[in-house]
């Protein structure tokens, strides 16, 4: 495999990057110096987050194309900004490259990121490039900087007894898609399962939803679904010191996930509750805000699904079945060391 040297590769990857007009005046020193310098805006707080994707852990040749890897690495980070109610602005990318990825594929990874960055008018302002020895895994670490109106960030700790729980869209599609991709491979996947596979490969972060929630001015607890609905609900319960009760039959699930479960004889619940990587937002809001928020989402062309309520009690998550039966919901989801 022939590839440019480190500096040639950096030039190739960053050369064509555009800074959107909205950010040009705020980028004091762009890519190419020791560090980037950006100016903050009066009336806003900075938001910063960072997530890594590792080959064989977050993706494999069988499940994702290079374009998808770039898209998802940035999407996962934008999702964390969305979960704070913020606006994504700048990003940095650290690449660990094994010899198994060709130059054209690395360029494709960047295309996946650039395409998504353009959607949100974001600018790439820096990064790092290193070799991974032998046939080690490709790693990609993305850092995103965003902003939110001063004091308006939405945290996991704001839920209170009496609140209603919402989710911004169906969950389980990514987990079902991953199952289909691992079973068939990306090149052999039947057309029938392409939509769930796409939910896994090219998830869209819910930035507009996060903004609508923030701009409502309501008291809102918020988290994004990266590790699974159960796991994220548990994080809210613990941060807010309350009990979250999910009503099972109100959790939105895509028809294709139901169909895939039927076709494989598997339980869709494993994906809806524990699958992860849907990048929808789960949150809690006071009951008297329910109607107003639902309408605000409708006006923005989005949907909001009410899936439970918050009660006083232990920091825990319970699930209420259609039968009325209630049980503790397993604190289970994606966990790197289990
Ligand atoms: N190695 C680390 N050093 C410092 N902070 C970390 C590290 N790993 C995770 N964190 C922080 O711990 C929190 C939980 O991480 P994580 O579960 O990955 O969040 P998320 O699911 O939103 O990406 C986050 O606030 C994250 O910034
Ligand atoms: C090949 C492959 N195997 C398994 C998975 C499933 N998986 C890997 S990481 C993950 C959860 C999200 O990743 P994490 O690093 O925990 O993101 P964070 O919560 O930090 O945003 C899931 C469901 C996958 N995406 N691809
Ligand atoms: Mg993380
Ligand atoms: Mg998160
Ligand atoms: Mg995690």
From TrEMBL:
Pathway: Cofactor biosynthesis; thiamine diphosphate biosynthesis; thiamine diphosphate from thiamine phosphate: step 1/1. The keyword Cytoplasm does not apply. Keywords: ATP-binding, Kinase, Magnesium, Metal-binding, Nucleotide-binding, Thiamine biosynthesis, Transferase. It is an enzyme of class 2 (transferase). It catalyses: thiamine phosphate + ATP = thiamine diphosphate + ADP. Mg(2+) 2 binds at residues 51, 80. One of its GO terms (biological process) is thiamine diphosphate biosynthetic process. ATP binds at residues 110, 127-128, 156, 226. Mg(2+) 1 binds at residues 51, 128. Mg(2+) 5 binds at residue 227. Its EC number is 2.7.4.16. SUPFAM superfamilies: PurM C-terminal domain-like, PurM N-terminal domain-like. Mg(2+) 3 binds at residues 34, 80, 224. Substrate binds at residues 58, 277, 334. GO terms for molecular function: ATP binding; magnesium ion binding; thiamine-phosphate kinase activity. Pfam families: AIRS (PF00586), AIRS_C (PF02769). Catalyzes the ATP-dependent phosphorylation of thiamine-monophosphate (TMP) to form thiamine-pyrophosphate (TPP), the active form of vitamin B1. Belongs to the thiamine-monophosphate kinase family. NCBIfam families: thiL. HAMAP family: TMP_kinase (MF_02128). This is Thiamine-monophosphate kinase. It comes from Aneurinibacillus soli.
